[in-house]
Amino acid sequence: MHSLLALSRLIDGITARIGRSASWIVLVVVLISAGNAVIRKLFNVSSNAFLEIQWYLFSAMFLLAAAYTLQRNEHIRIDLLAGRLSKRGQAVLDIVCTVLFLLPMTAIIAWYGWPIFMDALRSGEMSSDPGGLIRWPVLMLIPIGFTLLLLQGVSEIIKRVGFLQGLAPDPTEQTLDPHKEEHV
Question: Based on the structure, what is the number of domains in the chain?
Fold first, then answer.
């Protein structure tokens, strides 16, 4: 179990680095959006590429930060059942739901997203909008984002099993300081 907990720490470190990096995309989107608005108002010029890059980056924010959000236990939940359970019961519920729902869903989306990305890459698929962008970069985010989410789901299972065995702290009580560097 100790080697699995080490694997979990490795996954958590990778997830944290990618999640913190993805948070900078917000600034890029704001700058592109503001720049596009200023250019459009001042020079009456616009481009579909500016709009599409905003959509691509918006997708990147969510797909690359989903695993980080799971790691920080900040996904939206309905605690009708979990709120009535003990910490151990909540850990068991998290394990069961992750195994039954999260892992299969992320594996299926990553699996089926890969050939869609590869087809777009091979064909050089472009947006149908005038001045639009190539599609493969945004389509690549689907298998990458869902694979990261799948790996973080595995890490969450390991931490909860470790907690149930008394080998790890309660993962829901760990507060992750966003300013603290996490080491892999």
Answer: 1
